[in-house]
Amino acid sequence: MREQNAELLVLGAGVIGLSCAWRAAQQGLRVTVLDPAPASGASWVAGGMLAPVTEAWPGEEELLALGVESVGRWPAFAAELTEAAGRPAGLRTDGTVVAATGSGDRAELDAVAAHLARLGRPVERLTGRELRRLEPGLGPEVRGGLSVPDDLAVDNRLLLAALRAAGERAGVVFAATGAAGVLDDGARVVGVRGTDGTEWAAPTVLVAAGAHSAELHPALHGLVRPVKGEILRLALRPGAFPMPRRTVRALVDGRPVYLVPRADELVVGATQTEVGFDTTVTVGGIRDLLRDAERILPGIAEYALVESAAGLRPGSPDNLPLIGRLGPEGLLVATGHHRNGMLLAPVTADAVAALLRGEPVPGPVGVADPARFVPAAPRR
Amino acid sequence: MREQNAELLVLGAGVIGLSCAWRAAQQGLRVTVLDPAPASGASWVAGGMLAPVTEAWPGEEELLALGVESVGRWPAFAAELTEAAGRPAGLRTDGTVVAATGSGDRAELDAVAAHLARLGRPVERLTGRELRRLEPGLGPEVRGGLSVPDDLAVDNRLLLAALRAAGERAGVVFAATGAAGVLDDGARVVGVRGTDGTEWAAPTVLVAAGAHSAELHPALHGLVRPVKGEILRLALRPGAFPMPRRTVRALVDGRPVYLVPRADELVVGATQTEVGFDTTVTVGGIRDLLRDAERILPGIAEYALVESAAGLRPGSPDNLPLIGRLGPEGLLVATGHHRNGMLLAPVTADAVAALLRGEPVPGPVGVADPARFVPAAPRR
C-alpha cells in the first residue's frame, strides 16, 4: 500500500468532486483527487443551467426543493470561489425565459406554471410579443412562454477551472490516475486501488465519479447509470443576429431544447438517450438540436458550429442524487446528479463538508440520502 | 535573392500543385513547392468525386469533355502513383448513382439524361426499386435516378499523402513558406517573394494556389475567386445501416447533395456560397446537408458526425480551369478548378508537364488556356 497520507480521497474531478474537494480542504483535511482526465466528462460538456424552476416536473417536488436550496447558495458560492481561485467562477445572473411554439407546447407550459403556482412558486406568463421584447431573437413561431429571472446559468468551463485553482490553493493534491475500486476490510474503507495497480491509503473515500460511480464499490451497483446527452457550441459571427442575454429554454413539438449564452458562445442542448457508455455524437442528435433550436432562434443559422460533444449524465433510479454515507464505514458518495450537477454543486459540497465534520446535512439534502436504496434488514 | 537552384517553383501543395510537381520532377526538373500548410486547403476538405458525367450541365460541354478526358486517365494515374509513392492513391471504382426525390427533381434528372444522350454519352435510367437493388440504404423518398458506373471517386486524403510521397521520392523539395507574390523583371519571371520576406530564384513559376492564386500575380487578378463549400464526415457505428458502396448523388427539392463512401467514413457535401475568404462552418450549412442527406440515406441518423469543415474552391469566370501560360515569360498557372480539382489533377499535371517540355497540351485542355481572359491588343 502506497502511503499518501491523504485523509480524504475524492474519486472524480468533475464539478461535484472538485467542489467537495475544495470545501473539504477548506476545513483542514488533506485531500487527494484521483482522475485520469480532470474536468473532461459530463461537467465539461454541460450546458450550465442553474434552473430548478424550469426543470420542475410534477412528482419531483423534492428535487425542486433541493434545487431551489442550491440555486440560493450559488451567488455566495460563486463570489467565494472567485475570491479563492483568483479567477471568475462564471456565474451569469440574467435569468431564463421559456418559449413555447405549438398549442400542445403552450398547454404543457400552462401545466408547469399551474404546478409551480400550487407549490407557491408562481412564474410570470408572457405572450410571444412580451417574450420578444425581452429577447428580440425569438422567432415568429414562439407564441408564448414564461419568464423565470431566478433560474441562472454558469459557464461550466470557467467554473471547472476556478474550482481546480481554488482546490490547489487550498492544498488539494491532484493525481492523474483512474480509480479501479474502493478498498475496504469488510467493515471500513482502507483506500483505493488505481487502474494502474497502485494503492492509495485513506480512511475516507468520496465517490464522485459521475456515471462511472457504480463501478467503484459494490454498494453502488445498480444505483447509477449513464444517460447520454449531446450538445453543440455555436459562435456568433460578424453580421449575425446577436446572442440572447438570458438562457432560452423551449418546447418544440414536445421536444425540450435549451440555448445558454456564454461570453463568446451559445450552448445548445441536449439530447437524452440511454445507450450505455457511448459518447458518440450522432447525425440524428445534431439534426434534432439544430432543427429545434433554429425554430426558437432563427438567427443562429448564421452562427458557426464550433463544437459538438456528448457527455454521460449520472442517472439514479429516482432522479434524485445520492449524497451521503453508504456501505462500509468511511465511504461517502456524491453522485447521481443527472442533469443537475452544476446546479447542485454548492449544496452537495456543503453537505459533504458537514458529513466530514460529523454534522447533519442541510435539510433539503436529506432526500438524497443513499440509505433509501439499502434494503431494510429482514424481520425475524 | 536567396539562391535555391530550383528550375521550377510550385506555389501551392494542394492536389494540383502536388500532381504537377511530381510530374515535373519525373521529367528531371529540380522542383521546389512552397506552401505554409501543405494539403490543408480545399483539397483536404474535398469530397473526392471523379464525376464528369454527373457534374455535366447543359452549356458546359467543354468542361464535360475535359473531365471525361481526365477521368479516363485516372486509373493509370492512380496505378502509377501507387507504385511511385509506395502507398495507395485512394481510387475507388464502384461508380456513382444519382437519386431524385420529388417530381421536380426527377424532371431535372430527365433533362440531364437527355442532354447526355444528345452528347452521345447515354446514362442508365433506373426506378427507385432498381436503385435500391444497387444501394439498399436509399430511402423510400427516392423515386428514380441514374446509374453512372464510370463516375469514380478518390479518397482525397490518401491521394494527397501519396502525391507528397511520390514527389519526395522524385526529388521534389517542400518548403513550409507562404508565397507573397511572383517576382518578374517586366518581361520574365525571376522568382517568388515569400511571406517571410525571403526571395526564391527560379526561371519558371507555377501558380497552383487554388482560391488564393489571384493574389500572387497581377495577371491573375479577378480571374480566381473563393467559392466556399461546407462538408461533413460521418463514421459508421456498430448496428447502423451499412455504408453505400457507390458514390450517391441526389437532388432533394432542387438542392444537390452527395455522399461519398471511404474505407471508414462517409463524406457528405457540399454547400456552395460566395462569402470571400471565410471558412467558418455554419449552423445553416450543416442543417441543410444533414436534412437532405438523411432524406436520401435515412440510416445515417445513427452514424457519428466526426468532422465538419469548409474549404474554398477556386472559382473562375467561366467555370473552366486556367491551365497554361499567362503574363510574363516563365509564369504558368494551374488553378480555377472549382469543384473539379481531384477529377482534373491527372490531365492538368500532364498538360503542365507538356508545357514545361515546350510541347502542346492534350487537346481538351486547350479550352483552359488562360489566354482567353487576356484582352486582344487594340487594333490601330
UniProtKB/TrEMBL annotation, chains A, B:
Keywords: Oxidoreductase, Thiamine biosynthesis. NCBIfam families: thiamin_ThiO. Its EC number is 1.4.3.19. This is glycine oxidase. Transmembrane segments: none annotated. InterPro entries: FAD-dep_OxRdtase, FAD/NAD-bd_sf, Gly_oxidase_ThiO. GO terms for molecular function: glycine oxidase activity. PROSITE patterns: PROKAR_LIPOPROTEIN (PS51257). It comes from Pseudonocardia charpentierae. Gene3D superfamilies: D-Amino Acid Oxidase, subunit A, domain 2, FAD/NAD(P)-binding domain. It comes from the Bacteria. Pathway: Cofactor biosynthesis; thiamine diphosphate biosynthesis. Residues 8-355 form the FAD dependent oxidoreductase domain. It catalyses: glycine + O2 + H2O = glyoxylate + H2O2 + NH4(+). The keyword Oxidoreductase applies.
